[in-house]
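REQUEST FORM: STRUCTURE PREDICTION
Request ID: SP-0412
Submitted by: Lab K.M.
Chain count: 1
Length (residues): 247
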Amino acid sequence: MRVLVLGGTTEARQLYAALEQCVDRFKVTVSLAGATRAPVLPRLDVRIGGFGGVDGLHAWLVAHHVEAVIDATHPFAVQMSNHAVAACAQAHVKLLRVQRPGWTPVAGDRWTRVRDMQAAADALGSTPRRVLLTVGRKDLLPFHHAGPHDWLLRCVDAPDPTLLPAGTRLLLARGPFDEAGEEALLRRERIDVIVTKNSGGTATQAKLAAARRLGLGVIMVERPPVAQAKTVADATAAMMWLESLSE
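STATUS: Completed
RESULT:
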């Protein structure tokens, strides 16, 4: 069975590991957006870069005789997920989305839940605060005029310097992170508030537990709406779906 995996997440990497053991049953191509400069590559066929919208993806599916697509992209990669729904419908290709559950607040959390990055910037207010930004390197423009805050941006790859709010300090790091390390970072940098996306999963969840322990606020950008598709929560369920198609 010819399978296209739209990857890049922890769940995608877990799926790659399972598919590497099934090369006699599945001919897999992994597609990565190319947003990360040094991605962890599987021992499978890999393509990097966009398809050229819905029409480009549809044409690729038809040309490569793809029978199933697994969308294991980031919960905030809405455009790619929407394109996958439309292209698979046009090409009559089975589609499954792997989407881990979002985080939910628990007792002791001090969350402000907002709809987008502009709302997150507005929620910081005008009083100077020491802010840990963990929103990635492409969503920084709303923070340029968010007030005279002290910014610490943590991301995997360095962003375009012109996107950074004035005076931003940069911390390049790749998860997973542990709670002790996150608490030490928050204390050392005297952070007042964290701004983050509701990505879900365990790789970057420790900062939320550390913030809870220290009584810090968290501005949580909720997930944007996405086109409906059959969805499972993890790589194990995705493999079960693939296996059911190949029987």
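NOTES: Residues 137 and 159 are 5 Å apart (CA to CA).
Reviewed by: T.R.
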